[in-house]
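CHAIN AND CONFORMATION:

***
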Amino acid sequence: MTVEGIKMQHILFSKLGGPEVLETVPLELPPLAPDEVRVKISAIGLNRFDAMFRRDHYVVSPVFPSPMGSEAVGVVADVGAAVHDYGVGERVTILPIVSPIVGTGTYATHANVPASVLIRSIDGTSDAEEAGFWMASLQAYNMLTKHPVEAGDIVLLTAATSAVGTALIQIARDFGATVIATSRRGDRARQLLALGANYAIATDEEDLADRVRVITDGRGASLACDTVGGPLLEKVVLSVAEGGHILTYGAQTSPDIKAARVDVQLVALDRRTLTFVDLFELTDVPDRFAAAKAYFRDAVARGALKPVIDRVFPFDEIVEAHRHLEAASLFGKVVVTVG
């Protein structure tokens, strides 16, 4: 299909596998439902669960041929009969509040999506920044407000070079916390400190619990946010103070999230809580979701929060973008631009 002289395309995969299974094919969009909006996409945010979904390692299995994508920014091209909040030509962001696919899929030049997943884009952000902002920032805000972080708290963040990790550093510092950020390698410490972390620990080179005890004068962290799992999780638990909380939001050590398991010495959890969190416990609660959106606009305007982009790929290099997503040690978000 061609719209305004532009040939519509999208990314599909028809079998499980690595990045090579992704195909760019012509797109025929159905007519808009009354509550839908058609968006001409400018940039797409890539997430690790996209790669997991492609391999059937996510909590939802694909149905072939499967579209992809839940996060993007673009311009309204058309609106359904019941949509009155958005007009043609407005810059909008497709929020990742449905997973793993929003509407007809955001890995595309155009997408039909429910108006309920849209928000007006933040003033002053580039398309790449906007596409890389919301998933990471919403997850970070969710964790830092689930057990509300306040000035003087000590927050421990694992894999802090990830997109969520870079958002966690900035938001936690904006809330007044002291931030201990980790990466596997010591050569990432300078980047973490430049972003705002107070301390950086290389978990492949140092004992995490020992270093946290030294940094905190034996008290431990108030809150830990972990996305690594595996053997490191017990070290994270041992780094948290009595009465503290450990929030886990991923398992990078397990290629299949459905196979991920918790192996923590039971007594290590004495007077501590360990909880798996997901984005939707924020986005499904209207008051919390509204507070997050208001905070983001204010924080961006103040310069307290800025999306960190690892690398930007063009749409026709989607396979290479996914290779980078899976193989690289990222610092921030991978984004694909369209057109």
Summary: Residues 286-302 form the longest helix (17 residues). The radius of gyration is 20 Å. The chain has two domains: 2-133+307-337, 136-281. The first strand starts at residue 2 and ends at 3.
